[in-house]
Batch of 3 targets.
Target 1
Amino acid sequence: MRTSSSESSKFVRPHCCREASRLLRDLPDSPADLLHTNTLEILPPHPGGLWGDGDVLVSMRELDTIAVLDLSAGAVRWWWGPDELSGQHQPTMLADGNLLVFDNGRHRDHSRVLEIDPAHRTVMWQYRANPPRTLFCPVAGGAQPLPGGNVLISDAQAGRALEVTRDADTVWAVRTLTAAGETAQFYRMAAVPDHVTAAVIGPTEHPATLAARDMLRCQLPAPIGTSR
């Protein structure tokens, strides 16, 4: 944290950062990726005043931590995660100021989705599969809040996405397969409104869409059950 103009001038020295990264890359076991910041979201002000307009929500996977930073002040406004999160992705601020995050669970062998009350630093809601091991995505993936309160979960390494309710019911699920019938992994799926889809595809299907359809196909299986 910066507390004075003199300290501020020392806070960031790009040439030192590059040299430190070079030295770390030369060490065994690739320790150069100290943070692996996989999310950066510019926030509106928190309803309870925990952070201000323009502060930044980040996810640091290697630290099992999500945090809100005031970049202009060089200050950490809020943080949470160690001993709770494990290799998380895609924290998102909800309208009420809570945070939704996909907890990959790489050290516990199952993934889950958490809603966190940042003011009280408590888990308000969570989704886990039943049994928990049937949703395990140690790398990539995410959870997107949908209008109405449902959540779109990206089970990336299984090539699967599913929409779940707050009662943990599965609304639908989709799995991506190659033309050979093999599971096609992806990084993350995102919900796109109908009017955006229509504008992108247009009245005639785009060649890129046709090419992707030749390589991939999607299965819409029956709802895969409920979980708590």
Target 2
Amino acid sequence: MIKSEEFTRRRRRLMEEAGNEALIVLAAAPERLRNGDAFYPYRQDSDFLYLTGLDEPEAVLVLRPGRESGEQILFLRERDPDRERWDGPRLGLDGAIEALGMDDAFPIGDLDEILPAMMEGCDRIYHLVGKDAQLDQRIIGWRNRLRAEQRGSHGPGEIVALEPLLHEQRLIKSRDEIRCMRRAAKISATAVTRAMQACRPGMNETEIMAELFYEYTRNGCPSAYLPIVASGANACVLHYIRNDQPLPDDGLLLIDAGCEFAGYAADISRTFPVNGQFSGPQRDLYDVVLAAQHAAIDRVRPGEPFEAFHEAAVATLTRGLIDLGLLDGSLDENLEAGHYRRFYMHKTGHWLGLDVHDVGDYRIDEQSRLLEKNMVTTVEPGLYIDGGDDIPNHFHNIGIRIEDDIRVTDDEPENLTSAVPTGPEDIKALMRS
């Protein structure tokens, strides 16, 4: 778990980068109605969670560098025994100071009264513009009210997007964040391993998904996203989420799944034979994807461009497709023309953290950004052969993806999810066990 001291350090660092003439405003995620009077499970906004650690709705964080009576202020719900009897405990004003390290706390109902005065003397307001339309309008209203009530006062002249500052900060993971991600990876790896061991002909995709959720739930973790449990031709649908079809006895099963621990996500993909034994064509394609993943992971090193491991995967996949007769021509010709995109149409990785597709730019000044220590990315090459008159029948409807979570270190990449086997013989042994 993340200690309150780290949340305080994050807020201080953000204020230092914003400057003394800035005001920073972030809102908690709202509760969302599912239907009737039933709500979806609550998930805090990742930016708000990163800066506060608070897992409650109806809250606004305000950071005012240089404010003598307190720079870090949280507006939130007060304690309410009657409502807490129905909905569970609230942190309350005192808890915000004691548990979250805030300088001050006020009732959320006082936001409209107090916040305009905090804008006095500010040049700019940092805010996640466009993320919460209601808050966008309130900020404009507070600024206009300040200017109307105090003619000639020095109010904020501009509203600035907070993302460039905050998301760059989130991109490099701290020691405690890495610990949380290792924990999420360990639980997710156990869940995927469990599903692989449970798999056998005659089952349904739903039953495999249940094995994943069992492992998450027993460890007190929610799913980081709706998993993909795609058998046979379903694996050629990149974002397949129906997860309700019978498993083909002689087909492959592709699982893409991960849980959250303390808000931090894992993301694992494995593809394996339902009956525990790869056919010849399945094994041929699988070996190509596995070789591509090995080549890509080896390029996840400090100083390497982010694009480098994608290029390594693409070159290996393309060479394999040529060797298997699925592409004609030379390697250079196919790479230049992008012919591999018929069978491999996505990138090889994405940032990972509080979001599965985590924040942070991939390019800086139109150049692929260089990897740095404690960035975490997925590495997930794949091949999707959904058929065609020019494709040999034995390759039809085979979809394969292998994905691991990789931390950039000073030297060798750290594979957070290596506990789930990828070698074909290791997979066979696991499923037999």
Target 3
Amino acid sequence: MFATPAFAQAAAPGGASALTQFIPLILIFVIMYFLMIRPQQKRLKEHRQMVDAISRGDQVVTAGGLIGKVTNVMDDQIEVEIAQGVKVKVVRSTVGQVLNKTAPAKA
């Protein structure tokens, strides 16, 4: 019926618009880094330090929820006593928390 001709608009200069299109993407990446990536790296570093500092006599909680006392420390495993006479071997990285840290004996 009523058909109006469609006219193309003139193109904007390409140099400035390309940069302004990438600014939001860069801002989103920066925000994601500070809100998600950086805290996870910090938490991972703290967990690694905690696992490396486990020693005999510490009371630990494993990722599976077992609570026990460390009786032997090996390279990548620890032996945890979860009950009187019941000892299990646990991979060091699965320790979720150290409850009671034993102090070194005074000389």
